[in-house]
Amino acid sequence: MKRVDVTYMLLFDNLGENVLMVKNKGKNGSYYTLPGGAVEPGETLREAAIREVKEETGLDVEICDVFSVSEAFFEDRGHHAVFFTFRGKITGGEITISMPEEIEEITWMKLQNAEDYIHITKDTKGLIKRNASAPYLLRKRSDFTS
């Protein structure tokens, strides 16, 4: 199976009540996700997450920490996908749909509703608000040598 790394960004509005979601166009209909997408060759997870948010929403963001890491096997595609979801904050830009062939809508969704689309565990209710996280570290080769 081919390994595919995917990054997502969890972004809240100023009041912390709504989550930024994108409605993607799919073969089997539209569906909501956090902004994100596949990591390109030579790209760090951080770079991919920031790039994907900019491409999909027009917003500039920075990463705060790691929200979750999960994985799934897509037998029909021959993919083993690893999903890295970061918490982030908006630093600039303006919400725009620059990829109308892929993105149908960008919306601020009530946290309770967004949890239905953020598939991290079997029971994600309340997980987003708990603020549990881990730092994101990009380690250099020199970190592993003495």
Describe this structure in words.
The chain has 146 residues and is mainly β. The protein has one domain (2-125): Nucleoside Triphosphate Pyrophosphohydrolase (Alpha-Beta Complex). Helix content is 12%, strand content 42%. The chain contains 2 helices and 7 strands, in the order ββββαβββα. It has helices spanning 45-57, 111-114, and strands at 2-10, 18-24, 31-33, 36-38, 59-74, 79-93, 103-110. A 4-stranded mixed β-sheet has the order 4-1-6-5, covered by helices on one side. A 3-stranded antiparallel β-sheet has the order 3-2-7. β2 (18-24) and β3 form a beta hairpin. It is globular and about 40 Å long. The N and C termini lie far apart (35 Å). The model has no long low-confidence stretch (mean pLDDT 85).
Topology, element by element:
Elements: E1 2-10, E2 18-24, E3 31-33, E4 36-38, H1 45-57, E5 59-74, E6 79-93, E7 103-110, H2 111-114
Parallel strand pairs: 1-6
Antiparallel strand pairs: 1-4, 2-3, 2-7, 5-6
